[in-house]
Specification:
Layout (H helix, E strand, L loop, with lengths): L5 E3 L2 E3 L3 E3 L5 E11 L4 E11 L5 E3 L9 E3 L6 E3 L2 E5 L6 E4 L5 H8 L5 E6 L4 E8 L6 E5 L18 H7 L3 E4 L11 E2 L14 H26 L11 E6 L2 H11 L3 H4 E7 L13 H16 L4 E3 L3 H8 L1 H11 L21 E3 H13 L9 H8 L16 E5 L8 H10 L4 E6 L9 H4 L3 H17 L6 E2 L1
Parallel strand pairs: 13-14, 13-16, 16-17, 17-20, 20-21, 21-22
Antiparallel strand pairs: 1-2, 2-7, 3-4, 4-5, 4-10, 5-6, 5-9, 8-9, 11-12, 12-14, 12-15, 18-19
């Protein structure tokens, strides 16, 4: 597969695998362009050497040729991993984004056919999707949650990860990357990801803008395949089977309440560890919420609009291993079968990103006890919602058949919280399933050692029963 160079305002990044003299392949992960006080233009590169999907070896090669070019096409020279060139004009910071994600290398290594699709939302965000294509087959869209990316659906490899498993079962698999996901959701037609405006979003924008653009693009692609004869003309490719983790469920609720047409476009929603109202439905107290919001405000005051840049949590856990392990067990993963609990933090693109508004929005929902849109305050609410209070999403508009899954020890999507969602959406929820493990927490849905047998196999079984019209109505 050939990837085109990615052009972002003033910089142009040609992205490709590089072969080291000592052997092996290096993949370009990130390219940051800086203008320093001496009017010198420098570009720092981050490289990784894949190790079968387990951990990353970060190194810079001694020589790289013409990987980053200025918009006028003049090549930059390299010296020990840095390009430098004198220039006549200064800029504060440019971000030349990389577009070769690690999971694509894993897909290629396992001989999985794959495609890249670029989607632009109505408000200008440029998102990159991955597809494991099976033209004419039923389309499945996998949507990540807070601090996630499409990497979460492939990071355990073909033997365990849901994306591979679905593709092996002849589904047409699409992997979403919502705005803010690194590196696939970091582009905008006017903004860069170092600007405050870029990070002015929460799950509301994920549902109001990102998911509509993604699902419409899928329909356009599969529709054109049917017309060109690549797919079976009778195949039901226009409807989507949706699977989401955590906050993806919030985005789904926003999508179907604000854009009711998608109630007919989504055939089934399967929500893993779904969130909704949060109030008295989570296993953390007011003091812990205040501590989190203090951290968010500190980041904002330092003009650090991304809460967890790639590698931030990994470095933090290296410095404070015991503290990190404690909080991870409490709030992220505690499956009995997950022997390497902190291994998820080695994947720099798995737990990263997050905007201050995302956290603030969840805090507002936790405090209010209702599923509301972002509260800007009375004055701004009047301009945006035509009322002094934040918009309350009309969940009665949602008619998509839904299956909810929860873990017994999930501190965020607690059993009580998931059953409260069922009580709100009894007309559309077809089943509520408990993961059959005495210990199963929030991120175990992605990284638990036995995720295939505990989650994926059950999810696929229920999905196929639904498609056959044989799904039993069971609330666990």
């Amino acid at each position: 597969m050939q990837l085109a160079g990615h052009k972002h305002r003033h910089c142009h990044t040609a992205t490709r695998p590089l072969t080291r003299r000592s052997g092996g392949t290096l993949l370009l992960l990130n390219c940051n362009c800086h203008w320093n006080a001496e009017n010198s233009f420098s570009v720092e590169f981050l490289f990784a050497q894949p190790n079968d999907g387990v951990g990353l070896d970060h190194r810079c090669p001694r020589a790289v040729h013409q990987l980053c070019r200025r918009a006028n096409g003049s090549a930059l020279r390299v010296d020990n991993g840095k390009y430098q060139e004198d220039i006549s004009q200064r800029h504060s910071l440019l971000s030349a984004a990389l577009v070769l994600p690690l999971q694509l290398d894993w897909l290629k290594a396992h001989n999985a056919s794959h495609e890249l699709h670029n989607v632009t939302t109505a408000d200008g965000y440029q998102l990159q999707l991955q597809r494991l294509p099976r033209p004419g087959a039923r389309a499945v869209l996998l949507v990540h949650g807070l601090l996630g990316s499409s990497l979460g659906w492939v990071c355990l490899g073909p033997a365990k990860s849901l994306a591979f498993q679905l593709h092996q079962l002849q589904y047409d698999v699409w992997l979403a990357n919502l705005r803010g996901a690194y590196p696939h959701g970091r582009q905008h037609i006017e903004l860069t990801d170092v600007m405050d405006e870029f990070w002015s979003f929460s799950f509301h924008e994920h549902g109001a803008y990102d998911l509509p653009a993604i699902i419409d693009h899928m329909a356009e692609v599969t529709g054109s395949e049917q017309q060109s004869g690549e797919a079976d003309r009778e195949a039901p490719t226009r409807q989507v089977l949706l699977i989401g983790h955590s906050q993806a469920f919030n985005a789904f609720l926003v999508l179907c309440s604000l854009h009711p047409r998608f109630n007919q476009r989504i055939q089934l929603m399967q929500a893993l560890a779904p969130l909704s109202r949060l109030h008295r439905q989570v296993r953390f107290d007011a003091a812990q919420v205040r501590s989190l919001m203090k951290f968010v405000k500190k980041r904002q005051k330092s003009s650090k609009f991304e809460l967890f840049p790639p590698g931030y949590l990994r470095k933090l856990c290296q410095r404070k291993h015991e503290q990190c392990e404690y909080y991870t067990k409490q709030y992220a993963g505690s499956a009995k079968s997950n022997k390497k609990l902190l291994e998820a933090f080695n994947y720099e693109h798995l737990l990263q990103g997050g905007s201050a508004r995302e956290i603030k929005h969840l805090q507002q929902i936790w405090k209010s006890g209702d599923f509301i849109a972002y509260d800007y305050g009375p004055m701004q609410n009047m301009k945006i919602y035509n009322g002094v209070e934040a918009l309350r999403y009309n969940l009665s508009r949602i008619s998509v058949p839904t299956i909810l899954y929860f873990g017994e020890t999930d501190a965020i999507a607690t059993p009580e919280g998931v059953h409260a969602i069922y009580a709100q959406m009894m007309n559309s929820v077809r089943s509520v399933k408990r993961i059959e493990s005495p210990k199963f927490n929030h991120f175990d849905f992605l990284v638990a050692g036995e995720v295939k047998t505990l989650v994926n196999d059950k999810l696929i079984e229920l999905m196929e029963k639904f498609l056959e019209g044989k799904l039993s109505y069971i609330i666990e």
